[in-house]
Fold this protein.
Amino acid sequence: MNLQKLETGNTSFDHISHGGLPLGRTTLVAGSSGSAKTLFGAQFLAMGIQLFDQPGVFVTFEEQIDDIRRNLKSFNWDIDTWEKEGKWVFVDAAPKEENIIAVGDFDLSAFRIRLERAVQKSKAQRVVIDSIGSIFMQFHEEMHAIRRELIQVALTLSRLGATSIITAERLEEYGRITRFGVEEFLTDNVVILRNVLQNEKRRRTIEILKFRGSNHEKGENPFTINPEKAIVIIPLSAMSLKHASLNERVTSGIPALDKMIDGGFYKGSINLISGAIGAGKTLLVANFINGIRQNKERCLLMAFEESSEQLYRNAANWGIDFKQLEEEGLLKVLCVYPEISSLEDHFINIQELVKTFKPDRIAIDSLSALSRTSSDKGFREFIIAFTSYLKHLEITGMFTSNTPLLAGGTSDTEGNISPITDSIILLRYVEMNGEMQRSIAVLKMRGSKHDFSIRKFSISDEGAEIGSHFAGISGIMTGNPMLIKHK
Amino acid sequence: MSKHEFQLFINGHSPNSIEAVDTLLKICKENLNDNYNLEIIDIQKDPDKAEKAGIIAIPTLIRMYPEPVNRIIGALNVRSRVLAGLGIPSMYS
């Protein structure tokens, strides 16, 4: 059942395709205009040359070669040199400036011969034809002839034995596969690239529709165009929930909170702090970070709301010295505006940091700020991909989330994330006797018993203090605390 | 009247190629009074020229002169349309 595949060199694609593109076969890559089809093809060739020393042929039916060279320059692919070394060969089939008319029957044998020569001369193992729809535009009155001839081209490709990509235009993101029905004769392997506008935000996805006779991940996976690594896919479905559950506990940095959750957070767990503004979320994060001292762990803090000066000053007020932790190489703080890049790019940045810094803990303050940069669906996918990534690496995570109301309620962010988290800690204001008091409660702690009481929570110069539970009061969570009168 | 200059790309003895050569030669003789230059290029023998000119379809006729350069693809089997495409009056005088 399994056909052989050619590793493309784009690790994320090889991951979702279970090994790469079908070896020696042609894959149709369909997408609307601006969906990164050309880049997908070019990356396939560039990776082949860079990583496996496999020469490639790039056929262009649409863009002029000079434009392609220029557009790809930003990715640090040395196409000029590769061309000189005969590893990258362009076949120019782009429209000419001259006027073309058709009188009588014709075939595309000139194109086939040129393609065959280019492949044989360079011993190409990879071929990209970009994009086949444009040839219908060039010879728009001769659809039948072009269709018949393209079948010949497909046969030539399969005879040459190179692994190839043919790109094709589509008009709608969800509709027929290609504009000119190319899929009718290129049916075996189909990949779809999408660039959907959703809630004023662009969302790029890739879907492997089919690889005949082979397994691959199903459904759409978001991807981003990284300035260095070109197309990077964020695999969702490929990340299974087969993480080992760890029994080891790590401290929250606050002994009284550790007691509430029966000894600390589980290592590799995802923990959510939910609360209104000023309820003490960042304080819990600071303590979570301070908790790394105990076992000389390392922590990465992604701060999306405050500048580093503010953060350091606040932590210092609570008796926590971020500077020192940073100097010891245990803490890395990254303060960024969430809007500077897309969620996918943030994800890739974090991955890069994790790779180099190798943290044991990650804190994100706050997730709500991050959620502003994407659609709901995109955010949910990010959370799934991100949490399973952390679990895979056994990194303990603490995320904060803002609630819109001071006293009670939940936010959309939480709706998205709470099923995935291992524990949820609520910080709520309690209005009692003309006074605002803070409260802390553990809503959920997966795989462990925990304290069910709602406790007083106060912030002093010494940091967080957790007191006794609010006895005889009901309705804190709904925002309407009332004294229960005992008869 | 200055000379017309043509390049005709063909593929060996394919029927379309033969038809295109025949029609073009007739036009040259009857409509251009032999006042022309014609280069017939067989892509099997001279693929580099096809590469350079970016030829995809066979047959392809390129009118190099008079300018602007233009191209007609196909077997050229409708003479009146070929003449129109080349900008040659059907009754040359």
About this structure: DSSP finds 15 helices and 25 strands in chain A.
